Amino acid sequence: MARTGRRSGVSGSSERILAAARAAFAEAGFEGATIRGIARAAAVDPALVHHYFGTKEQLFVASIELPFDPSELVGAVTAGGVDGAGERIARFALGVWLDPGTRPVLVGVLRSAASDERAAATLRGLLERALLPAVHGLRLDHPELRASIAWSQLVGLFFGRYVLRVRPLVTVSPEALVAAMAPILQRTLTGPMRPGA
Amino acid sequence: MARTGRRSGVSGSSERILAAARAAFAEAGFEGATIRGIARAAAVDPALVHHYFGTKEQLFVASIELPFDPSELVGAVTAGGVDGAGERIARFALGVWLDPGTRPVLVGVLRSAASDERAAATLRGLLERALLPAVHGLRLDHPELRASIAWSQLVGLFFGRYVLRVRPLVTVSPEALVAAMAPILQRTLTGPMRPGA
Q: What ipTM was estimated for this complex?
């Protein structure tokens, strides 16, 4: 598509709407956020929000498509094979969480998913698209169960660190958290699935 | 306190209010639930809810005090020492989750904590009171970090199974989930905290 002066103005509104939507979903969750409030924060007419993004659910999906590219995770995890996969997942997760551009988006996704079934379905889809293929690339036994336990650990950790802000999860350094989580994730991916086995 | 006919009627209202509050917090989260709606569901006047329980936050705290006694967990985990502690924690957690009386309460707590700082503080307190003392009883190194990672795993697993309802977490049998989680929790409690160490 050709870029014109007008086009660039349109794209500016669209970016402002997405930024306002991310802030609103992070602050108020899916149910609490309103198209009207998002439009006000973006200094546009609510009709323009609907015109660009459709329903609130579609706007939510658009607003969370940005934090990271799932294919990056797949590459980062599978590139080095099974050895060290736990550490690579932990590092990738912490990298995404420490990025001030993506963390509020993820907080918003988690808050929204906790209170709204459509947002939960979106997060389910995001997790399935992001982590399952990465784990499949490692050719493990029970890949779905291992992948879903691994991402539940990351969701729980993110929730504890950034939503509940519980000590010491919130005070421990990222490096120490990677060091603690890497062997646990590695165990989750590759260890025996029976206790004591 | 002496039990009289009148007292028992009062206690009936109080029980109905707590039950309605649990249902409301589970359904709508802390912010979405209202004293008015809870009173209506319990067939009492809103003033009676305030009279018995004070603010909405106090009602929330009262409504989540019931799911289990933290001292039970401490006993269940520490009684057998370090060996098998991961499996005992996994079994205790699944037992609480499978109980149809406690699961909706926990779903409500999690939903509320995700969207409301006061509810998050309450859940923080619950987790700290429940799991930290149990892990302290095991006399491990880094008890706070290990305990907080362990409960973040349980929170993430509960979130994945009962809120997001993601497969295969939601379809796997409780026994298989205990079998999968026990060695991971054991590793979290007792394994080296440095990757490769």
A: 0.73
